[in-house]
Amino acid sequence: MVQTPIKVGIVGTGYAATKRAEAIQADPRAQLLAVVGNSPESTQKFSQTYGISTVDSWQALVANPEIDLVFVCNINSSHGAIAQGALAAGKHVVVEYPLALAPLQAEALINLAKEDHKLLHVEHIELLGGVHQGIKKYLSAIGEVYYGSYSTIVPQNPAPMRWTYHREMFGFPLIGALSRITRFIDLFGEVASVNCHNRYWESSARDYDRGCFCTAEIRFKQGLIANIIYGKGETIHQAQRNLELYGDRGSLVFKGEAGSLITSDSQTPIEVASRRGLFNLDTLLVLDYLLEGKALYTTAEASYYALRVAEAARQSAMSGKIINLV
Ligand code: NAP
Ligand code: BLA
Question: Is the pLDDT assigned to residue 1 strictly greater than 80?
């Protein structure tokens, strides 16, 4: 058990880091001590906003003996190494998904946390969100589910020169956007095979892509076929966030936050809670776990399994072949 207040360090200063800092500062059970950022300007601004100190490197942050818990909230390509360093320094660790870009590294992190009896929590706020909770509530009403589709596409013109458009920093689209896969695995279990295609639009003038479009067909062991579409950037001209599940007795359809249960003779609206407040909830659940031993809503092992499926999607896209999972 950790003593209160739990002393916290944060790596990152963006949206996720801000939501974490707000949640920690609002909870007397935790105390935010230090942050390490990327650019000096955003680091300075973050430290002033929350009245905390800054350090020059994540290595210095995890070496601080006062810190009990480290939140890793920066670019995807850094997660694995920072989580590794933090666990090796004896800290509890929370990582925004993905845990690492490579499944092998993720597996090593899980083993390291287990050996040292430390928490390794991978945030999956999509599982806490209103759409997912709505699905879980009504899933039994649609009978045996045989098909699902989930499409999240975002037009952005011009595409920003940010890490989310950088192949190495974001990772393969369905690895960086792992939540598209975890939602289905959480509902329907293990995967048999993956067929995936991905296209980038690169730019000769810069290191950042102008966009990507990735489609995957995933066959689950229990029979369901899921189609996932993820795209962003300059070649997309309408935004979409649609999730549909077809069962033999009805369908569940979500367009953004507007959900409905459809059967042959009725259409019932489904109330969906806002996407706001999920990082706050995730942070409170981490504190509940560390201080009261309450079970968390997801495990690093589940995130690792999803990462293996996403890696199979990457291999499928590279090879043009269907990848079977063992
Ligand atoms: P963000 O707002 O863009 O923040 C990114 C952070 O990483 C900033 O502190 C940025 O610092 C830093 N950074 C940028 N380039 C870097 C580099 N080359 N090396 C090291 N640090 C760099 O991103 P975010 O939305 O908070 O996402 C952070 C993590 O949370 C990601 O892993 C993402 O997948 C995950 N996540 C986010 C959400 C969400 O709702 N936003 C949901 C689920 C998971 P500067 O600004 O100083 O460059
Ligand atoms: C997920 N949102 C993400 C991720 C990134 C962003 C990088 C992880 C990768 C992914 O799954 O695609 C970034 N999201 C943004 C940015 C905006 C945005 C820059 O909406 C700009 C407005 N995230 C937010 C905001 C909300 C939000 C403002 O930044 C909601 C009010 C929610 N983002 C949100 C949720 C997820 C997510 C709930 C989990 C993914 C999911 O729902 O499947």
Answer: no
- The tens digit of pLDDT for each residue in 11-44 reads 999 999 999 999 999 999 999 999 999 999 999 9
Q: How far is the CA of 276 from the centre of ligand 2 (A)?
A: 10
**CB of 176 sitting under 6 A from ligand 2:** yes
The pLDDT score that the predictor gives to residue 205 is 81
Phi, psi of 255, deg, nearest 5: -115, 105
Give the ligand whose atoms come closest to the C-alpha of residue 97.
1
* Rounded-to-integer distance, Cα 178 and Cα 36, Å: 25
For 177-230, the three-class secondary structure string (H helix, E strand, C coil) is: CCHHHHHHHHHHCCEEEEEEEEEEECCCCCCCCCEEEEEEEEEECCCCEEEEEE
Average pLDDT over the chain reads 97
Task: Give yes or no for residue 308 having a pLDDT over 90.
Answer: yes
* Closest of 200, 214, 210 to residue 313, by C-alpha: 214
Q: What is the mean pLDDT of residues 46-72?
A: 98
Closest residue by CA, ligand 2 atom 12: 177
Answer yes or no: is the C-beta of 97 below 6 A from any ligand 1 atom.
yes
Cα→Cα distances 198→180, 231, 319, 322, Å: 15, 9, 11, 14
List, in order, residues 6 or more apart from 310 with CB less than 8 Å away.
98, 172, 174, 175, 178, 181
